[in-house]
Amino acid sequence: MTRPAKRAPLLLAMGLLPILATTACNAAGPDTAAAAQDTPAATSADQRPFTATEVSRFDQPWAMTFLPDGSLLVTEKRGKLQHLDLTSGQKHEITGVPKVAYGGQGGFGDVILHPDFARNNVVYVSYAEEGTLDTRGAAVARATLALNADGSGALKDLKVIWRQTPKVSGQGHYGHRLAFGPDGKLWISSSERQKFDPAQDMSGNLGKIIRLNDDGSVPADNPFASQGGVAAQVWSLGHRNVLGIAFDANGKLWAQEMGPAGGDELNLIQRGANYGYPIVSNGDHYDGRPIPDHDTRPEFAAPKVTWNPVISPAGLMFYSGSLFPQWKGSAFIGGLSSTSLVRVAFDGENAREAERFNMGERIREVEQGPDGALWLLEDGSKARLLKLTPKA
Ligand SMILES: [Ca+2]
Ligand SMILES: [Ca+2]
């Protein structure tokens, strides 16, 4: 699935950045210079501080998470959950997974561990689910992972604890990224299913960031708890397609958002805040209709980073390891249309793109391994699992 660029980047026009040519198809617009000012030049393979080693391949992988024993769980969009033993290289398909609505952007989504996984073996998975009358919506299930000595296993006692509401037509913008916060709560990104206005409608949970207890119940201290109903689940609203959420070392939640044309974002998520979509965006609709920029409506929370040309962010993690000490505290974003790994650096609550590594393939997911290596999953069929270690 390609994603058209809003405008050709300034750096491309200057001939400095041929690597991004695949994302650009239009002539440079009048306000390109300002929008592109913070975009660093992509780093070529021989300048990278890391070596990328292929470890395995998957069919349309979407997410991964490391288990305490160093093995890896990987979801595949068509509906498989794979368990990869990184020592033996053996891969086993985990049984007992929910049936997914595969198609478009939909299918199996995220997989994460309960904070007490080492004791309770509880995992959470997200996926697109069929409704009635050709509708779909994301769902989140909680289950116990029962692993056998040979690496095979099953999800037991699977229980759906959350659903997008309403279920709607189409196969895009599920979001359904998951994270546990330092508060012990389960956080879910619920994208707006390409329906725009639901992001501002508190009678549904589309276009929102959701905060739940680990059993799926609603915390009494959520910002809209007094409204009851679905609104009680909501932590923040006005989001488009949030394909990465992660907590930094200070416990602050960040979310990257695949925006409209020329409007990808990294947001610092604040309690009860409205991020403005589709009323404001620094990008514009793909059909050419303008959307007023953030600075016209300061009552809406503005992004900390905006990308134009877009990077198509998917997968977000904060680096805390020692293998790349220069990157401690940085965030890493997988780029789909930009076929890149993007490093974001922080100064308090401010953020900027610091580095961009061209990976030559769409990057769907980023993780930090137990030894501090960076791990990437490419997108699509025969996608590589890559381990990034410091160049010798
Ligand atoms: Ca992950
Ligand atoms: Ca705009």
Automatic annotation (TrEMBL):
Q: What Pfam families is this protein classified in?
A: GSDH (PF07995)
Q: Is Signal a UniProt keyword of this protein? A: yes
Organism whose genome encodes this protein: Stenotrophomonas cyclobalanopsidis
Q: Which residues form the signal peptide?
A: 1-27
Keyword Signal appears in the UniProt entry:
yes
Keyword line: Signal
Please report the name of this protein according to its UniProt entry: PQQ-dependent sugar dehydrogenase
Specify the Glucose/Sorbosone dehydrogenase domain's residue ranges.
58-387
